[in-house]
Amino acid sequence: MMPRDRLRIAVQKSGRLGDPSRELLSRCGLKFRSSRDKLFCFGENMAVDLLLVRDDDIPGLIADGVCDLGVVGRNVLDEAALATPGEMPYRELRALGFGGCRLSIALPQDEAWTGPQQLAGKRIATTYPNQLADWLRRNEVDAQIVTLSGSVEIAPRLGTADLICDLVSSGATLAANQLRETAVIMQSEAVLAGAAEMPRDERGDLIELLLRRLDGVLNVRESRLLMLKAPRAALAAIVDLLPGRPLPTVTTIEGRPDDIALQCVCSGNVSWQDLEAMKRAGAQGMLVLPVEMMLA
Ligand code: PRP
Ligand code: ZN
User: The domain containing residue 239 runs over which residues?
Assistant: First the structure.
């Protein structure tokens, strides 16, 4: 293969992960001469190009060295890894926090679920035969795997299988096909995958730069709401200790003129050490809450 000095990232061309993948990369400062209908997007401001492909092809493109990185569902990556036992040509570099779904067993709605053992002797339709086989083995269940390339959810109605093993996100597909989710085989989300060995040239440096930026972007999603009370005299010292130096809102407490209540959004996690330092400075009743939504 021709040596390359530009980094190449595979992303899903269409489908669930396509848009959020490209949006995440642009939040990392990458600009592409983008044409959605093309296979290749040239990186305009960095030596990083995109290849727009079918998600199922991404593990192979990384393993073969055609692409250095890929944004792909963990379900696709794990399925490919199980299909090539022994070698592990790629690894998960970062979980990206979008495209959440799970690989689950689903039965016709009117059938009761008593546990994996009831699947013995049944025909299970799936596009994930390796993960299903692995799960059946771990549960010591002997069932027949019917490998399909798509439209798994209609197999029970067509009579080609008794039940299915498929991805579930909102659950709408299962509901529309009178199926219900029972056992969860794996939890998936979009991940950044790369070759097991980093390229030892400029591309390796680009990957490191990209990972640092990615961490910067992903950390915003870790924002926390911090609330505490303190003597007014301790306020300046506590403000100095707020992780990430956010702008705090300070309010009075009715009936306690010498104390204040403070509230702020900390970008990045608040550690036990942060809380302990603030406590030593006089803070009390500290609460750390996850931030679910923010509208500026
Ligand atoms: C999955 C799965 C179901 C659907 C479930 O396919 O095969 O058809 O999503 O989603 P829901 O619970 O929100 O209804 P996907 O769209 O990921 O396409 P692919 O498996 O062909 O890549
Ligand atoms: Zn797919």
Answer: 223-290
E runs forming strands in 156-270: 163-168, 179-188, 190-195, 224-231, 249-253, 256-266
Closest-CA residue, ligand 1 atom 1, reads 167
Residue type at 38 in one-letter notation? K
pTM for the model stands at 0.76
β-pair type (190-195, 90-95): antiparallel
Whether 110 and 33 share a structural domain = no
Which residues line the pocket of ligand 1, CB cutoff 6 A? 15-16, 55, 150, 166-173
| 133 plus 202 within the same structural domain | no
pLDDT tens-place string over residues 69-96: 999 999 999 999 998 877 778 899 999 9
Give one word for 227, left, alpha or beta, with left for phi > 0 and alpha for psi -120 to 50.
beta
Cα(94)–Cα(210) distance, rounded to whole angstroms? Answer: 11
Asked if pLDDT for residue 215 goes beyond 90, the answer is no
- pLDDT band per the 50, 70, 90 thresholds, residue 35: low
